[in-house]
Hints:
With 193 residues, the chain is mostly helical. Among the domains are: 63-106, no CATH class; 136-192, no CATH class. The chain is 34% helix and 6% strand. The chain is built from 5 helices and 4 strands. Helix 3 crosses helix 4 (171-180). The radius of gyration is 40 Å and the shape is elongated. The N and C termini lie far apart (113 Å). Pfam families: Slu7. Residues 1-62 form the Pre-mRNA-splicing factor SLU7 domain. GO terms for molecular function: pre-mRNA 3'-splice site binding. Keywords: mRNA processing, mRNA splicing, Nucleus, Spliceosome.
Amino acid sequence: MEKYDNAAAGKNLPQELLLGQTEREVEYDRAGRIIKGQEMLLPRSKYEEDVYINNHTTVWGSWWKDHQWGYKCCKQLIRNSYCTGTAGIEAAEAATDLMKANIARKEATEDNVAPVENKNLATWGSEVPEDLVLDPKKLTESLWKEDERRREERDERKRKYNVKWNDEVTAEDVEAYRMKRIHHDDPMKEFLN
């Protein structure tokens, strides 16, 4: 009686035994997988959900600004950063306001800048203006530069490491390029090489 207890005595069974036993029949295969009976519960996701790190109250990616994801609780765009809460939001807004004030002050001081001299720069396009007047000396110099550029283009080994580019293109440079350019529909292009 002490070891096995008496079921006929009418005592209530412990809760562990009552909840652990069911009348449902479950069949298993040789590998231990369920064939019939209890349905397997599928997990909702293979990723952990609602895991908050570094004192955040929202997950990463709950906030979007300027094509970047962030935390909604502190509006931080840096992943795995520590949450700063409302104090961090206020500090970020103060920094943004200060930056805008500095930019406005700088633009106000730049309003009094001397006018930029008008350089005779060319516009790229297929149409040549009717009233275009070219300096012959500058044109011959531009033709020489174009030949030099084509020679360097053929042999990449002669190009220096510290190349300084000049993006100011004059009308003479454009005309030299047009004169030296090979037209693909030109019947004499084979003889130019």
